[in-house]
Each structure stands twice: as structure tokens, then as C-alpha cells.
Amino acid sequence: MPNNPEIYILAIESSCDDTSAAVLYNDVVLSNVVANQKIHSEFGGVVPELASRAHQQNIVPVVHQALQKANIVKNQLKAIAFTKGPGLMGSLLVGTSFAKSMAQALDIPYIGVNHMQGHILAHFIKHDNYKKPDFPFLCLTISGGHTEIVKVNNYFEMEILGETLDDAVGEAFDKSAKILGLDYPGGPLIDEYAKKGNPKAFKFSKPSVSGLNFSFSGLKTGILYFVQKETKKNSNFISENIYDICASIQAVIVAILMEKLEAAVQKTGIKQVAIAGGVSANSEIRKQLLEMEQKKGWKTFIPKFEYTTDNAAMIGIVGYLKYLADSYNRNESNATARLSVEKE
Ligand code: KG4
Ligand code: ZN
Hints:
The chain has 344 residues and is α/β, with parallel strands linked by helices. It is built from 9 helices and 10 strands. The protein has a 5-stranded mixed beta sheet with strand order 3-2-1-4-5, with helices on both faces. Helix 1 runs parallel beside helix 2. The longest helix has 32 residues, at 237-268.
């Protein structure tokens, strides 16, 4: 490997309901195209069969656009990285098969990437004013499918210190939003409405879960019963109080996350703390994490907004790191629906 390698990598992400393609030049993102699938909002959640069909329609134009925006031609590519899992099988298969076929046609390697490692290693994408965490660091990985506190020992060695026993935190946001009649995905809407509300207006109880694990299903049920009870008394309860309800829901969810994160710092003595995954776009968790720099002397790492929810740039950075380390299985092309962040 030369000292100053010029590595162009195409990355493809299709694990859930976003079709994304990115081109990286070493650790710099040249393009990161994301096609969201609007169709699911009608159903209040992702419909797997519709997701895989939409990926099939989107993948060719999205890859084409990513190459065009990066201003390169496909023959300049050194490798193609793709999300191999975890995710919806039908969705993963579209990206996996496309990546493999394109790489074989170009006679270049294809590199399978763990989606959750992608969320975490997005912190290593170079951009203006970026700071990289040193190893080891803690990462609160919060998305629509996962809620984990991960100890990141190095690029490819990660340990789960705590995780959810039931729903993921993104589901807690989305299901609460559904109870309130908001569109899917409801997390960003709750965040937006919460800015105008009083977080102390309504009190929801936190679950009691030992150690560093989480639970969100009881909270969701608590919110449902509370809303049902109040709307029996006043049929306009939701519309009259939507901002306060959203602020109160967000407050309890963020309090649960921060409490466990503080416990993890105390337990490990590691004060470098990152957040990753779709829910790390939440403005309240970003604010409270940053405050811990002053309050507790933590060094915190908050991802750039566009690398929080699903995107191919985060898959590209892992592909690049694996390519540099020559650490990937040259024959791997299998999609894997269930895949722990601890496994490459
Ligand atoms: O990482 P991601 O894009 O997909 C998965 O891998 O699951 O995460 C999607 C989740 C959804 O549950 C969505 O509601 C949530 O991230 N989300 C947010 C915000 N933006 C996205 N939750 C709270 N506040 C936000 N601003
Ligand atoms: Zn994700």
C-alpha cells in the first residue's frame, strides 16, 4: 500500500427503508445520496415487502447520482462496500446483490460492512472541524432497531456493555408518535414539537432495569394509557397539548439514556463518549451530551447531522478502513438479517 493511497470507494446502504449510495475519496465523502421511501408513512411503519421493491427501483438511479456528484467514473473505483446486515432480509439482498454484481463486472473487491459498526465509525469521516475519538471510547448507539452502549476498543473490536431488553429507543419515539396520530417516522416530529413545549408538563415513569440495560416497552404502554385516559376526559386533549406531550415524552426518554450513559462512564472510567444512529439526530440528547463536557469533564463526540440516520457514507468509511487494513472476506456476499455489532 503506498503512503498516500488514492482510494475511491463506492458504498451502498439498503438495510431498511432508505436507499443510499456514497462515494468516498479515502476518508472524505464526495457524495452521499439518500432516497427516502415515503410509501411507509401511510402504514405507520416500514413494510418489508414494499421496502425491497422500492430499493430495486431506487438503486440504479441512486448509484448513478452518487458517481455523478462525486465527479468520477466507475473505473476509478478501488472497491465497493455494502451493508451486509443487520436489517430486513429483502432490503439487504437488493444492495448486496447489486454491490457484488457491479464489483465483479469491474473486477474489484466487494467489502461487507456491519451497519451498526457503520453508525459508530461515521465519527471517523473527515470534514471541517471534525474530531476523532481515541480508543477506547463509549458509544451510545441509538436507532430504530437498536439501543446499545458499546465499548469501542478499536475499529473492528466492539463490546456491548448494555442493550435494550425489548423495544429500541427509536421505536419508543415512533410508537409514541403513532399514539399521538403523528406520521411515521415520528422521532423527528416529536423533537420538533418538543422545542415548543414544557418538558415538565406531564410525568411518565422511568422503567427500573438493572445494570446498563434498557427497556422501553413499559414506557410506551404508560404513554398509551395516559393518552387514552386524558382523551376520555377531553377529546381534544392531544391537539390542545401536543407540544407539552412531546416535550414530556422526549424528556423521559433522554433522561433514561443519559442515566445509563453516566453509569457506563462511572463503571468503565472512560470519559470519551460518542452517540450514533438515527436517534442521535435528536436535539435534546445532543444538547445534554454536550453539557456533560462542562458538568463532568467528558469529551463528547456528536455526529454530523447527515451521518446520523441511515446513509451510505458511514458504510463507505468502514469499507475504506477495512480496505486499508486488508481486513475483509473476499468471498463474502451474504446478507445477514441478525448481526451483532461485536461481529464484523
Ligand atoms: O439509524 P436509523 O436511520 O435507522 C435504523 O437503523 O433504525 O434510525 C431511525 C430512527 C427512527 O426511529 C427515527 O424516528 C429516529 O431514528 N429519529 C429520531 C430523530 N431523527 C430520527 N428520533 C428522535 N429525534 C430525532 N430528531
Ligand atoms: Zn441505522
